Amino acid sequence: MANETVFKRYARNPIITAKAVPRANSIHNSAIVKEKNGYLGIFRVDEIDMNYTLHVGRSRDGIQWKIEPDRIRMRSGDPDVVMTDHSYDPRITKIGDTFYVTWCNSDAHGPAIGLATTKDFKTFKQWENPLPPANRNCVIFPKKLNGKFAILHRPSDRGHTPFGDIYYAESPDLVHWGCHRHVMSPTQGWQSTKIGPGPHPIETDDGWLLIYHGVWWSCNGFVYSAGAALLDLEKPWKVIARTRDYLLYPTELYERVGDVPNVIFPSSATLEPGGRIRLYYGCADTCISIAEAKLADVIAWVKTHGA
Length: 307
Ligand code: BMA
What we know:
The protein is mainly beta. The protein has one domain: Glycosyl hydrolase domain, family 43 (Tachylectin-2, Chain A), CATH 2.115.10. The strands form five sheets. Strands 14, 15, 16, 17 and 18 form a five-stranded antiparallel beta sheet that branches. A four-stranded antiparallel beta sheet has the order 1-21-20-19. A four-stranded antiparallel beta sheet has the order 2-3-4-5, with no helix packed on it. The radius of gyration is 18 Å and the shape is globular. The model has no long low-confidence stretch (mean pLDDT about 95). Beta-D-mannopyranose binds next to strand 6.
């Protein structure tokens, strides 16, 4: 095991494996939110036919989960707006009493971004895809900015995407998206090939804290790690600071070995007692783990380990 940064891994990682769902081949890269009486999640479940869809899960402590064996069935009222059999990498953001779910809704024309809303995790209203192919990472800010919904996303290609920058966009109605701004590009080392937004940004006095994944291309394939940036509170396409050093790198066996080796894919963060954040991340496209840090320590790390 290598040195840890400010994040400390949970000793009993991984917390979720394929055993949680009868037909699962793997469960990883999933979205979790903390509510008053427990935790709710939307899980990427790759099944034994290697199709991948989204399932609801519930937990009292955020560690032991019950995940529904059946996929989510969304309602759109339009036969052309559907959740495909290749739906993956969800994110959840709560604004007011509504949960906004974004995910990669991949069909014959390539990976697009899907969008749905729910208030109870029982009925889901699916909206038009906010972004066309090719794009497979999108997360919504936890409040409207200047009266508009705002997202961070990462345009891609139809394959495994050996490139990728993070962009910003906003919408007055969740349907029409504009004000497209470039936010960040890959730089060096662990984030030299592509980067993509992870959990929804966390509002702090120092700016929006964005935890993101960075990828470098080794002779054995992609290696996914986690880093963080601080974005301007009013103009989040302006980067205040950004880590040069990674925050989490695949060092543990469950991060190094799996269907896609060497992957840490940060996808959710919850605020916990004592000013801590708990990061949920997919491991080697096989299972889910957690790591915790003090929010103040993460911010200090970004400021002092900057690019
Ligand atoms: C995501 C998904 C996965 C992929 C992964 C690494 O963007 O596309 O299918 O393997 O990255 O976890």
